[in-house]
Design goal:
Layout lengths: L5 E5 L2 E7 L7 H8 L4 E7 H9 L10 E5 L8 H13 L6 E7 L1 H13 L6 E5 L2 H7 L4 E6 L2 E8 L4 E4 L9 H18 L1 H9 L1 H5 L3 H19 L16 H10 L6 H18 L7 H11 L12 H8 L10 E3 L2 E3 L2 E2 L7 E3 L1 H8 L4
Parallel strand pairs: 2-9, 3-4, 3-5, 5-6, 6-9
Antiparallel strand pairs: 1-2, 7-8, 10-13, 11-12
This protein binds nicotinamide-adenine-dinucleotide.
Length: 363
């Protein structure tokens, strides 16, 4: 039996996320239902476009207007946004147009930002093709681009009209990209649902061989969790901070390594350090870090650093984290598997000495 779409709710309404093997084939039906009469343009990561619509796999029927951009974070810039926008203007796209964004999180953010700003906003449909973009960036409505001073500094909240997430596309995803998404799913279990965490533990084998029905369940449950968290907090004033579990350390590791540690691996390491911190500070019961390590290892995610990093640099980077208050470094720490520790707020300040000591556990 095919399950119905997951419904993601936001401040202005809601949208369906179709998660099923074969969801790519729903594009025509969904555009007819939601975008009838509009002139459509696909904005796609060039590699994914080549793979899924133009060439090898051809699983996505698309013969309409298309704009592509080179894959990678280097394309998530104001320059790409300007080029895509100018192309749309030159081709005469008007306010009655709509965008289909095909690709990973880069595409969702970039094409979503083009849609958010073109003629003051066009509707768009997201077709995420990486695990990370299915279970993370397709929910929450954030779009935007990077600048020389940092990631995601220019952007807008602009939720899609619908999302088509086809687990079959994950079979062609490079191993490292795939594991990045798994780290975020582990985080979702940790912050909100022990039963889901236990399900991931039980299904690590199916996930490692990318079994389609196991993947469909993973994507659905993670989307539900992220959707529940962001529904009341789209603009990040409170509870949304729990999605940042593991990320205070992860962002510091990414920066200090000059982005040689990929995001998913940094999140895995961050979850280990921050689980240890929660235990050490007496916020979580003993055994948390061990359970987290075991699961990450069974998913082939790292629990130890593969390079030397400077602790002062790591602390400096954490000192610039956007969750910080009153000059103190804040973390979204766990109370146990499935629940974030909460005192006066959703995040907890931690002294530098404790952070330095906790960083030792991934050396
Ligand atoms: N908007 C949000 O809420 C949100 C949340 C998390 C992350 N992000 C952003 O997402 C971006 C990272 O997204 P990502 O990890 O999906 O990266 P990505 O979009 O760059 O995709 C990763 C790589 O995989 C390739 N690829 C994509 N789908 C494929 C497929 N099915 N088969 C083979 N190759 C495929 C792409 O060409 C690319 O080289 C970052 O810029 C991050 O800031 C946004």
């Amino acid at each position: 039996m095919i399950a119905g779409p997951v419904i993601v709710t936001h401040a202005l309404g809601s949208y369906p996320v179709y998660v099923e093997p074969g969801a790519l084939g729903l594009l025509r039906q969904v555009t007819q239902e939601l975008l009838s009469g509009r002139r459509l343009v696909m904005i796609a990561d060039a590699s994914v476009y080549e793979l899924y619509t133009a060439g090898k796999l051809g699983t996505m029927p698309w013969r309409g207007d298309t704009l592509t951009f080179p894959p990678g974070e280097k394309s998530k810039t104001r320059e790409s946004w300007a080029r895509l926008t100018d192309d749309l203007l030159n081709r005469g796209f008007g306010r009655d147009s709509a965008v289909i964004a095909l690709g990973g999180g880069i595409t969702g953010d970039l094409a979503g930002f083009v849609a958010a700003t073109y003629m003051r906003g066009l509707p768009y449909i997201q077709v995420p093709t990486t695990l990370l973009s299915m279970l993370d960036s397709s929910v929450g409505g954030k779009t935007g681009v990077d600048t020389a001073l940092g990631k995601n500094l220019v952007g807008s909240f602009h939720p899609p009209l619908a999302v088509l997430a086809d687990p079959r596309t994950l079979t062609t995803l490079p191993e490292r990209e795939y594991r990045s998404g798994l780290a975020e799913a582990v985080k979702h279990g940790l912050i909100a649902d022990e039963a889901y965490f236990a399900w991931i533990e039980d299904n690590a084998g199916g996930l490692m061989c990318r079994d389609l029905s196991t993947l469909a369940h993973l994507v659905r449950r993670s989307i539900e969790i992220k959707g529940e968290v962001v529904v009341d907090d789209e603009r990040e004033s409170g509870r949304r901070a729990i999605l940042n579990a593991g990320h205070t350390v992860a962002h510091a590791l990414e920066q200090a390594s000059g982005y040689r540690i990929p995001h998913g691996e940094a999140v895995a390491l961050g979850l280990v350090v921050e689980s240890h911190l929660a235990e050490e500070l007496g916020l979580a019961p003993g055994g948390l870090e061990k359970r987290v390590r075991l699961l990450l290892t069974s998913l082939s995610l790292p629990t130890r650093l593969s390079m030397e990093l400077d602790v002062t640099q790591l602390l400096g980077s954490m000192g610039r984290d956007k969750k910080n208050r009153d000059g103190r470094i804040h973390f979204a720490l766990l109370a146990r598997v499935g629940e974030i520790y909460r005192d006066s707020g959703w995040t907890t300040p931690v002294a530098s000495a404790s952070i330095i000591s906790a960083l030792q556990v991934i050396r």
